[in-house]
Amino acid sequence: MDLKRKTYFLTSLILTISVLLLLVTGSPLLTIALDCKDEIPLGTPITWIGMIALPLTVYWGIQELRNPTTLLNRILSAFLKIIILLGILWVPISFLLAGNLSFSFSEKASFQGGQEAMRWFWRLSYGIGIGTLVIITTYWISLLFRKSRNANP
C-alpha cells in the first residue's frame, strides 16, 4: 500500500467515523448556525463530508474496486463511482429537493419542500450509505466464493 493511497484511505476512514459518531449521538455541533439568519446548520457540511467520505473509504481501501480485474468488480467499481458522485452532489440535489440548506420539509402541495421531495431526499441519503455497504458486502462475499473455488480444484 503506497503512502499516498494509505493517507487518503485513513483520512476518509477517520472522517467517516467522526461524522457517524456526531450523527448517531445527535451532537449539538450539528445545530450550530453557520449564517446570521440561522438557516444553514453545521450539520449540513458535516453530513456532506460523511456522504463523500464513506464511499471514498471503500474506494481507497480496496484496490480491486479502483482497478478491477473481474466483471463483478468492474460492475461494483462503476456503482461505487456513481455513489461517490451522488455523495459529491448530495448538497446540490438536496437543496433542489428542499429549497433550503437546512433540508427541512413541510406539508406543501408543491414538490419542492413537500412530502414527495422529502421521500426523495431520504432515498438519496440512505441510498448513498446503504449502496456503499451493499458494494462492500458483495465484494467480501465474492472473495469467499473465490477462495472456496481455489481451495477445491
Automatic annotation (TrEMBL):
Annotated TM spans: 43-62, 82-104, 124-145
The entry's keywords: Membrane, Transmembrane, Transmembrane helix
Entry keyword annotation includes Transmembrane: yes
Protein's UniProt keywords contain Transmembrane helix: yes
Name of protein: Uncharacterized protein
UniProt organism field: Algoriphagus kandeliae
